């Protein structure tokens, strides 16, 4: 059994991770931690996330920031479901080379996703000072970077929007099917859990209503561009639902691209992948909520060469916790979908 | 024109009041105020409530607590859409007998609704120190207390749940149709705007899901009991919608009460009332949202003598702003529904 | 492996059953059937319920009404997730004594729930003609009738509202804690899936809004009364959510009943029951959606003797499919929660 | 007073029209009609749309298809809120030149919106046989075609999506700010009322969840292209809300276009227009629901030349009924926003 803990288990992603680890044959959910100054410290998981009441009743222990090395020595696997700056601050201790740290780290924050450290000031609001770790971190896009993930000790789990976007776009880009002179246009709508578990006026029930936000400046745009290898325009929206992301992507295809080439590109990428599903109709958000799937459907307009692809995921699962679990499976030698699909 | 201002116009109720006054032929929306330490001070109404953008662009002026008398001298009518304690604290200045204060005050908080000042500590969390004003305040149940309202200078607008409940129960109680040995059971579900415009985890979109709260201890229970004149059990619920209240009320009727007696009691109470509607089917929340109506429908079980009545209102209108407007109409000599129904 | 089929797998309950059987170690999901004249006949489960796309891809076979005996001979266990009249019509063949029928039948319709056959005309709109089967059927209230369920061949799975209501009320009734001169008042709100998977104006998205319905005449009222053993007033409501039921129950307790007696009654009933959870706060619908739990929380008003209990379930799981699975577990010798809670 | 009737008043758009005409000083709501074989014939408006119960209690009269001329002779203004084929079929009688028909017709269906009659077979599923009327019909884009509308007798009210799209795009196109080698990409999400008031599985509450539909083939795409004068890619989505449309439009601007040029284009188009609002933040659906406004906000990415504009309307008002009322105001000599904004 892989001895596992979760730091940041009071949030929505942390709770989903707890459920996945708890339900997995090969991983042991050994401890849950929260920031020492969290109001949730000392409570049990079921107090905060009542769907787990009486089922996963581990306490949320306050983390000892001064002694994170001890954690990295005690556990085989640590999930960080923490704010970006907390991950950035704590990672040096967790990954110290001087100690006997052995834990594999899966960071679900954005602190180690993009490689250009200068972009952190612009998009994340803090200066990045962990050059070596940033260079070492592997981007955990689980359906693409499997060999690197298998050998990594620090894995930066992709953001929710990049996961939905890259799953749809990478097969096209890899096969040179995109006319990149026309940027792919990604319009995506996310459920409100994407904003995290917190009190905020703009995620108040009374205020939420479909709306674009962070237009032309969202931090997931450089992440998508980095791992796609070409420019895109990404416009996120907040939707009036709790979970899920639907990304609608419009692409100008290269000259003379056929429906068949597109289908083959997708098949080649995901032929035997149990997580990416080629649907036979346009996916709905609710088709994937509570599942680890990424559902794809597409249509090419032969007259104009424009292609529309939609991609649907559960933002907390494929967009966070279940993709992290895919990475953990890969890293520890199990099938990518173990514990996720039966 | 009745020169009118609203204190607390940044909240949902205040905004509805602004729209009603703005649209009324006989009232002039002369000024909007918010607490001086509100983050909204200085903004315009349309910035905060964009449905009024470019339409009601009055600024939200910071109120000068030290000089409330000046307000009461300058305006004919002041609506207080303020927290309970703010109303309690400010009322003495607003209603000072020593000055030339002339404004009629409509208080939409709970600070002057119940007559027993000792209940404020228990239900509202503060000690009430304004005995004289509490005694003078008229309870603005607009379909019942019309004569008192016409002559009052301080009118305490009823709570949203009491409005829905009393409209349904008072005709029965007045006609001795209730077997009061069995307490009427009021189950009501309110939209989230009832919690006010604020950041709070339990009104976050991701957290809201139908749930009972404040069971057997909600502050509207004593208010209902006071103005009904008999005990009730009142159980409020938070629903996953923005606006509206549906109250489902179960009453054991007195011996041998007939359907006809019930119908007559309701007709007698609301015969020509343009605001209370006798529906021919069970009302939905959305039938009344955005309207000043209280919709009623009922059914008597002849075998057992139990009667079920449901009562639907918009919590921000009939449960607050439009009932306040009914009171203002009555107080200044207009028809009760002027500016509300055309 | 218990060879299992589901008749009526195109509906919401049937799909949930398919998922539970598919995920259970001891049961084999061998076949899915739908009515021969269903537009869904010949499609796969994943076409209709895309959350199961690529995962449970069994075809929905048209059922041969003329030869139901063959089904009952081929399977160990048959779930009927069919309309009331279809269950009533088909049951004689499925349970024929003359053939070698061996299948245990779990009927999720209402056709065999209540014992007084005369009530079917009144509440279900058809005459009941299967006296012997009606007498033989065991009511599958899984947390209460375990011994009978273990030995039954025809099990009538309770309705969703009765499950939520009886779980809350039976411990009180069994311990004589209810002053039955005052009928318990049950107000419950159900998600729209309770109306089944079908086109209907009143379950159209544009029309749904919280509303009472079937007041004082819903078919679940006699079912609750029968299995509780005392009268109740039951008022159902349609809520603007997909899944879940919240029942708010108000009870006048017998003279001098204490909080402690109530707690003991509940503990005695459900002490080691992994499905009924005693919560420490008022349950929300979303706390139980997607789970097999029934969550309870209660409060007694010592001054008046009124008790409020709320009970939350997923209408498609504890209110249908997972309770049927509990019954199947009991009938075939497994733990009641096998395959439901890990 | 302009004597007005509405044909098709049982639908959502018809009901909104009824409310607008009823509330307008200059128009008289003289009669409501529905198809003779409608189940709603004979009911009153308030039975079907309870928000108007006791307020607009006109009966829904069955229309006499054989004698539509009589209608056109009796009324000054007829709104057709009817299916496309019904409008097409009835229009010849309503607009017959031989009779004394005097009514101005506002058709809210799509039957007279696009000028190329061959597209009706492809996009609407019927052959168009009214060439002369098609040629004569004026497209009622009320903020653009004011002179034509003032003189027209048959006005084809634009579709909901084209209204949102054209309001955002026409100022850019008119000023040659679009690099039309890159098609503008329109992604729009509509509330479920856009599908009409009817029973249908895909608009059932239990089934609705954010989803693209009619991708690359929706009938509003040719309408947008016709009145914009350049190609676009339009992808509609169904959202989980009742009312409203949010269109997110991505445009590659012509070389060297500046933020200032864009602002000037919009100001020039809508400077004193009380219906089109330039917001100072990204509009939400709920900011415009229940209002006649079209809210715009935009941002230019100087580095790449891509511009994102979002446009929000109420699909039943600015996308149908209130735009029809704007046209009626223009046609009968009133201010465009009379009866719509106070």
From TrEMBL, chains A, B, C, D:
Asked if the Swiss-Prot or TrEMBL record annotates the protein with the keyword Transmembrane, the reply is no
Q: Name one GO biological process term.
A: L-arginine biosynthetic process
The record ties this protein, via PROSITE patterns, to: ARGC
Which superkingdom?
Bacteria
Extract the InterPro entries matched here. Answer: AGPR, AGPR_AS, AGPR_dimerisation_dom, AGPR_type-1, NAD(P)-bd_dom_sf, Semialdehyde_DH_NAD-bd
A molecular-function term among this protein's GO annotations: NADP+ binding
Assigned keywords, A-Z: Amino-acid biosynthesis, Arginine biosynthesis, Cytoplasm, NADP, Oxidoreductase
What are the subcellular locations of this protein? Answer: Cytoplasm
Per the record, the pathway is: Amino-acid biosynthesis; L-arginine biosynthesis; N(2)-acetyl-L-ornithine from L-glutamate: step 3/4
Q: Which Pfam families match?
A: Semialdhyde_dh, Semialdhyde_dhC_1
Q: Which residues form the Semialdehyde dehydrogenase NAD-binding domain?
A: 3-152
Would the keyword Amino-acid biosynthesis be found if you checked this record's keyword annotation?
A: yes
Q: Where is the catalytic site?
A: 160
Class of the enzyme per the UniProt entry, highest EC level: oxidoreductase
Mainly localized where? Answer: cytoplasm
Q: What does this protein do?
A: Catalyzes the NADPH-dependent reduction of N-acetyl-5-glutamyl phosphate to yield N-acetyl-L-glutamate 5-semialdehyde.
Q: Which family does it belong to?
A: Belongs to the NAGSA dehydrogenase family. Type 1 subfamily.
Q: What is this protein called?
A: N-acetyl-gamma-glutamyl-phosphate reductase
């Amino acid at each position: 059994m892989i001895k596992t803990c979760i730091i940041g288990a009071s949030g929505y992603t942390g709770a989903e991770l707890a459920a996945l680890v708890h339900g997995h044959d090969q991983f042991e959910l050994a401890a849950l931690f929260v920031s020492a100054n969290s109001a949730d410290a000392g409570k049990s998981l079921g107090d905060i996330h009542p769907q787990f009441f009486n089922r996963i009743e581990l306490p949320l222990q306050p983390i000892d920031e001064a002694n994170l090395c001890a954690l990295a020595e005690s556990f085989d696997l640590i999930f960080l479901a923490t704010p970006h700056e907390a991950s950035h601050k704590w990672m040096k201790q967790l990954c110290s080379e001087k100690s006997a740290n052995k834990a594999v780290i899966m960071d679900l924050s954005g602190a180690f996703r993009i490689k250009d450290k200068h972009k952190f000031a612009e998009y994340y609001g803090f200066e990045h000072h962990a050059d070596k770790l940033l260079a070492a971190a592997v981007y955990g896009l689980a359906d693409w970077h499997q060999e690197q993930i298998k050998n990594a000790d620090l894995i930066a789990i992709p953001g929710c929007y990049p996961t939905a976007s890259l799953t749809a776009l990478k097969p096209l880009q890899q096969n040179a099917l995109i006319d990149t002179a026309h940027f792919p246009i990604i319009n995506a709508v996310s459920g409100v859990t994407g904003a995290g578990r917190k009190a905020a006026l703009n995620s108040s029930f009374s205020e939420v209503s479909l709306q674009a936000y962070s237009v032309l400046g969202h931090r997931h745009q450089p992440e998508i561009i980095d791992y796609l290898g070409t420019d895109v325009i990404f416009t996120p929206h907040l939707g009036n639902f709790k979970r899920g992301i639907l990304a609608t992507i419009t692409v100008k295809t290269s000259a003379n691209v056929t429906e068949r080439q597109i289908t083959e590109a997708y098949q080649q990428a995901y032929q035997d992948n149990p997580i990416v599903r080629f649907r036979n109709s346009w996916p709905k958000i609710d088709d994937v909520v509570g599942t680890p799937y990424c559902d794809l459907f597409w249509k090419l307009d032969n007259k104009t060469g424009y292609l529309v692809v939609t991609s649907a995921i559960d933002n907390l699962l494929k967009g966070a916790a279940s993709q992290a679990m895919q990475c953990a499976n890969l890293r520890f030698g199990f099938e990518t979908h173990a514990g996720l699909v039966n």
